[in-house]
Here is the input.
Amino acid sequence: MKKAALLLLSAILILSLISCAPQKGDESGLDLHPSVEKAAWGLNTYYIDAKLDTTNNKLICRQRMELANRTGIKLQAICFHLYPNAFASQDNAPFDACDFSRAYPNGFDPGGMDVTRVLLNGAPVSFDLSSNRQLLTLKHTWKKGKKVTVEMEYTVTIPNCLGRFGRGVDTYKLSNAYPVLCAYKGGWITDGYCKVGDPFFTEVSNYDVTITAPKSLIIAATGEEVKSESDGSFKRTRYMARAVRDFAWVASEKFSVLEKKVGRVTIASYTLEPTGGQEALETAEKALKCFNKLFGEYPYNRLNIVCADYFVGGMEYPMLIMLDRKLYTQSMKISLEYVTAHEVAHQWWYALVGNDQVNEPWLDEALTEYSTMLYFDTNYGENAYKNFFNICVVDRYKIASHDIENEKIDRPITEFADNNEYSAIVYSKGALMFGVVSEIIGKERFLQGLNRYYEKKKFGIAEKRDLINALEGVAGMRLDGIFDAWLSGKVVVE
Ligand SMILES: [Zn+2]
Here is the structure.
C-alpha cells in the first residue's frame, strides 16, 4: 500500500523535477508460463461462485475449497480468515482516526460476511467464530498429506467505504472478500485485520471464480477471463488464475479500458477519469520491463492497473493494482507514476515472493519502496534517482521522524502507532537501508542478489534470512550485522 501522505508530495516532486489440474491443456485452457504451470501443480484450489446484487450491495457466494495438509504434522483444526468482518463496527473499522472521514465520506457504513453453511467432505459441520467474527475454525483431525473439501455459503455486505474493500461512487472493490485459509507457520497464523499496513499473509493457490453481475458492469480481476455468457440482465464471467496469492476484483459501469501487450503479458488500464489512464498504462509497461530485467520475469499473462474509489494511494493484489482516482489528474502526474511503479514492484515483492506481512512487513514494503527508486534510476538515469531518493525517501523520513521514538524497522504492523510512523520507518528508512546495502556491495551485485532471492522464493514465503542469504551469496561477505543494526533501530539517520 502506498500512503495517502504521498499525494501531498506531488507538488514538491513536480517542482524539483521540472528542473485444479493446473497443467497446460487442462480445463483452464490457459497458456501458462512454465514456472506458473510448475508452481500450480497440486496447490489448494478455490472455486468461487459469486453473484453481485447491486440493489442491496451484497455479494452472495458459494465456495468450494480443495485443500491439502502440507504442514507435515497432524492438525486438529482448519482456520479461515473472514476479513470483511473487520468492517462490521465503527469502533473497530481498520482506519486511523484522522482518515475516518475520508474512508467513510457519507458516514460509517457497516460491512461484513455472514457464513450460513459449511460442509466438510460433503457433510454439514458446525464451526466456531472468533469473538470479532474474523476467524472461522473447523474442528477436524487433519492428517498430514490428507486432502479435504470445504464448502461454504456466505453473503458479503459491501459497505460504502473508500478503503480497499467496499464501494464508492463508481466502483465496487471486492478484495479480501472471501474466506481464505490461514497460513501455517508452526501454528495457524490468525492475526486479524488492523488499521496499519496490509494485514494479510496467504499462500499461493489456484482460483476458478465465476462472477455473476449486472451486464452494465465492467470487471477487472485477478486471473484471466476464460468464459463469459449472458444470463438475462446479468453476465456470468469465469476467471481462472493459477499459483496466485490472492484473488481480487473491481467492477464499474464507468470503466474505459486501454490495453497493451508487452511480450506475453497484456497490461490493461481501467480508468474512470478523462486523463491519466494512458499514463498509468505507460508507467506499468516501463515498470514491468524494468523489474523483469532487474529481478526476473513476471510470469503471469495479465496485469490490471485499476482506477478506483480508493483514498490511500495504491494497493497491490496479484495481477491487479488499485489506484486512487485522485491521482489521475495532470497535477498529480508524477505521484501517479510513483505510486503505479511502487504497486507494480509489489508483484515481485508480495505477490510472487510472499512474506508474513503482519509480522515482517518490512520485507516486502521496504524492498518495494527501494525498487520504486530503481525504476526511476533505470528509466530516467542517476540524477532522477538521486532526486527521488532525496525527496521521497530521505526527506520523508526526516520530516516524519521528529515525532517518532521507536526507530526499529523490523516489528509487526500492530506495533506501529499509525500509518505515518509505519510509512516513515518501514518505507523510507527501510529503503534507506537498502540504499546503504547496495552501496556497500555494489549495485550490480545487489541486483544479482535480488534476482537470486526472486528465483529461489517466487511462489513461496520468504523470511529475513532468505533475503540476507541471497545478498551475502553474491557479495561474498557477511551482511547480517548491517541488516541487524538497521532493522533493530540502532542506526539513526542524521
Ligand atoms: Zn507498498
Remarks:
- The longest strand covers residues 58-68.
- The domain at 44-203 is CATH 2.60.40 (Immunoglobulin-like).
- The pocket of zinc ion is lined by residues 1-2, 342, 346, 365, 368 (CB under 6 Å).
- The first helix runs from residue 6 to 18.
